[in-house]
Amino acid sequence: MIKLMLLATTFSAFSLAATEACDQKTLSKVEYMQCLDQQLEQSRRELTTWENNHLFKLEEQANSTGRQDGLKLFNKSRQTFALYAEQDCRWQFIGQLPDSKTASAYYKQCQLYHIKQRIELLKQVHTKPQ
User: What pTM was estimated for this model as a whole?
Assistant: First the structure.
């Protein structure tokens, strides 16, 4: 129960911090890149929190039922997601070369997009410990 309360507190803190958008028009290139870095860090933390929440529930379910299938598949989906997001953003980065600053911005924006999509999916998925 304490873990769930801690997770709920963490969710609310991250979602407040991650809502500020980086405005490329009003920020200098350096400030914009720093803003994207901060957004990525916050989003990765929030993603980790949601993944840990689901892992906790799936582990409880596996312990009570003896079935590890859901837990194994969830871990596989985490690995597959990380590989997909990396490769999808990498080709966009390469497409912007030799302008490395623009390429870096594209890469970070792409990573943010994928991480936020994954977080939204994890928010909607309900795993129930039995």
Answer: 0.76
- In angstroms, what is the C-alpha Rg of the chain? 17
Show pLDDT as tens, one digit a residue, over the chain (130 residues): 344 444 444 444 444 344 468 887 888 888 899 999 999 999 999 999 999 999 999 999 999 998 999 899 999 999 999 999 999 999 999 998 899 989 999 999 999 999 999 999 999 987 554 4
The count of C-alpha atoms lying within 13 angstroms of the C-alpha of 63, restricted to the half-sphere facing its C-beta, is 7
Measure the CA–CA gap between 89 and 112, rounded to whole angstroms.
10
Q: Two tokens at 48?
A: 């980790």
Cβ neighbors of 95 (< 8 A, separation 6 or more) are 103, 106
Tokens 């990380």 identify what position?
82
